[in-house]
Amino acid sequence: MSAITGGASIQGSAERAERLARAWRLWMTAGPGLFWIVVFLLLPSLILLGIGFFSIGNYGNPHLPLSLEPMREVAGYSILGWSPDNLATILRSLLQAISAAGLTILLAYPVVFFIITRPPALRPLLLLFVILPSWTNQVVRTYAWMELLGPGSTLSHLAQGAGLIPPHLGLMPGILAMQIGLTYNYLPYMVVPLYAAAEKLDWSLVEAGRDLYASGRRLFWSAVFPQTIPGLLSGIILVAIPAFGDYVVPTLLGGGKSMMIGSLIASQFLDTPNWPYGAALTIFMLIFTCAGLIVFRVMSKRLGSSEGSMI
Amino acid sequence: MSQNLAPPIRRALLLTSLPVYGLLYAPLALIAVFSFAPAPGSTTAGLHWYNDLLHAPDVLAALRRSLTLALGSSILGTALGTLMGFGLSRFRSRARSGFAAALPSLIIYTPIIMPSLVFGISELIFFNLMHKATGLFAAGLLTMGIAHVTFQAPYVALVVFARMAGLDPNLFEASHDLYANGRQSFLYLTVPVIRPAIIGGFLLAFTLSIDDFTISYFTAGPGSTTLPIYIYSAVARKGISPDINALATLMIATVIGIGLLQYGFTRQKDRQTVPRTGD
Q1: Top-confidence range, A264-278, A293-307, B137-151, B173-187
Q2: Considering CB atoms only, which of B85, B90, B240 is closest to A147?
Q3: Helix or strand or coil: residue A168?
Q4: Mind listing the pLDDT tens digit for each residue in B19-58?
Q5: Radius of gyration of chain A (CA)
Q6: Is the pTM higher than 0.90?
Q7: Does the bond joining A65 to the residue before it have cis omega, within 30 degrees of 0?
Q8: Which ranges does the record mark as transmembrane (chain B) (predicted)?
């Protein structure tokens, strides 16, 4: 009797030792990297968020006591009274991000279905060619559009000739240029998740629909499109979120009149410092980002999409 | 199957996607074409602007800084990332679920999903405060390198983790049965087996660093202008110019070359096609 319980406890302690050894090895291998990220990113971002609740000092530095002054400034209140500029900027950024997502969807669907209807050996390469431009520097990519849309460019001359823009002006800077820049920059982010969803497409549903004499349009909307929704939702997140907070595109293509929240935040830390105000804007941006993430997560959970093999 | 779509549909798909491919490459091609523009006062197209670059000390200095930064940060980022990917794949207990088990994943995904502007500004504030408090961490290549490692390590971890997930767990049991200790097993079994993923991860880390603008921009100091920052300030100051075209063309060619190389290195099975803005 005692021998049996003794044996069990030895087994239990061996199990515990094994588990400890495992945990120890986990911390010896993954620990340094995780520690690095916590110290050099999580901690700094918490500090940034905290600064959004400090008073604004004389030189734009954070000051005690804690206050909601930066938040009021985000809402548009300043010593000069209320102005709608900030709300307009936030709204503009939201609209730009949403329409960038919409445009990338329109461009991505034909490309994705073009790729998956080619022979399997060719598909990775065709996908790579969609992704490759995104590996070049974002400044360089955006600069390329300055060249295409600038006042002296062929496209601008065409637009002037058609009377779309006044003579001597270019298609850039402005909202249209910004929209093109964002769509161009984030197109691969829509193509990749959509491709992942479309590649796993269950074509037997299409066959079944065809047997029932469904029209092509009907087949697409009832048999194909629903299967791509999980990919579409990840694509929208991957495009809209970074587009919403983009910094390079609005600064280079947007010009002074069409500020987006990214450039507004950056200028609080670069040009005339106002850290608490900048931090408060960042909090707002993150709230929108998280809200978007949550909405889409709930939607994709409802639609029963699986997670895949992630870390 | 997917291939037996009606020919008109296939044709329509081809006709609608070719312009999209064109749209993706036209701006880059245009830069390349303009980079061969004739020198002022001349009418023959040629390598004039490339020649100018070779004699521009600030461009060469920026290039040197970019390479130093990319090499240094990639080595550390690959080491940390490989250990993370390996450790999480081998030693994380699968039985336990919940917050404690999900925490490492949450930490690893933070640098990847955080908007790069927020990332950069967080670093700016952190290093600024640290510098005021300790006198260390003056903004420059060091702070940029620290920030780069922070976003490189998670990507490398993902690549290595994906490779580890494709391995037979019995492999590790076998090395254990042959009395290899943890370190021996890691050095003589794991590292050779996952070498393609480590090399792929290193190249990914390197291109991520070379490409990065936003995070670098906010962590840079007065004397640490890298190539993307150099281009950005030149563009913000004087708009489009032929010497920037030449520089941009070289960068595009290099990154696409490295991208294709990396594609060749990673095996088909665990190939990770990660689009990135490189900001």
Answers
A1: B137-151
A2: B240
A3: coil
A4: 999 999 999 998 888 888 887 777 777 788 888 888 888 8
A5: 26
A6: no
A7: yes
A8: 12-37, 67-86, 106-130, 136-165, 186-208, 214-232, 244-265
Whole-angstrom distance, CA of residue B138 vs CA of residue B13: 54
CB A151 within 8 A of CB A66: no
Q: Do B121 and A34 touch (CB under 8 A)?
A: no
Task: Using DSSP, state whether A124 is helix, strand or coil.
Answer: helix
Of A30, A139, A286, the CB nearest to B104: A30
Write the DSSP assignment of B124-175 as a string of letters.
HHHHHHHHHHHS---TTHHHHHHHHHHHHHHHHHHHHHHHHHTS-THHHHHH
User: How close B225 comes to chain A (CA, Å)?
Assistant: 14
> Is A148–B27 a contact, with Cβ atoms under 8 angstroms apart?
yes
Residue B93 backbone dihedrals phi, psi, to 5 degrees:
-70, 130
Cβ separation A248–B28 shorter than 8 A = no
* Predicted confidence (pLDDT) per residue in B199-230, tens digit: 888 988 988 888 889 999 999 988 889 999 99
Question: How far, in whole angstroms, is CA B155 from its chain's centroid?
Answer: 8
- pLDDT tens, residue by residue, B45-55: 778 888 888 88
Query: Which of chain A's residues have a Cβ under 8 Å away from the Cβ of B78?
Result: none
Distance between CA atoms of residues A59 and A276, nearest Å: 11
Which among B26, B125, B210 has the least Cβ separation from residue A44?
Answer: B125
Q: Does A242 touch chain B (CB under 8 A)?
A: yes
Q: Which of B150, B207, B274 is the closest to A36 by Cβ?
A: B150
> Residue A194 in contact with residue A230, Cβ under 8 Å?
no
DSSP-assigned letter for residue B96? -
- The pLDDT score that the predictor gives to residue B275 is 52
List Cβ neighbours of A91 (8 Å cut-off, separation of 6 or more).
none
User: Is it the case that residue A258 has pLDDT exceeding 80?
Assistant: no
Does any CB of chain B come closer than 8 Å to the CB of residue A113? yes
What was the pLDDT predicted at B68?
93
Model confidence pLDDT, tens digit, residues B174-195: 877 787 777 888 888 888 888 8
User: What pLDDT, in 10s, does the model give residues A123-140?
Assistant: 888 888 888 888 888 898
Q: How confident is the model at residue A33 (pLDDT cuts 50, 70, 90)?
A: very high
Q: How far, CA to CA in Å, does A59 sit from each of A52, A73, A247, B220?
A: 15, 16, 24, 21
**Which run of H or of E encompasses B271?**
none
Residue B244 has pLDDT above 50, yes or no: yes
Q: Cβ A44–B126 below 8 Å, yes or no?
A: yes
Average pLDDT over residues B241-266: 82
Residue A141 sits at the chain B interface (C-beta within 8 Å): yes
Query: Which residues between 34 and 53 in chain A have a beta carbon less than 8 angstroms from any beta carbon of chain B?
Result: 34, 36-38, 40-45, 47-48, 51
Written as six digits, the tokens of B270 are 């665990």
Please, which residues have CB within 8 angstroms of residue B234's CB and are 6 or more apart in sequence?
Answer: B241, B244
Identify the DSSP state of A164.
S
If 0-12 CB within 10 Å is exposed, 13-18 middle and 19+ buried, where does residue A236 land? Answer: buried
Query: Testing the interface with B: which of A136, A171, A194, A246 to mutate, by most B Cβ within 10 A?
Result: A136
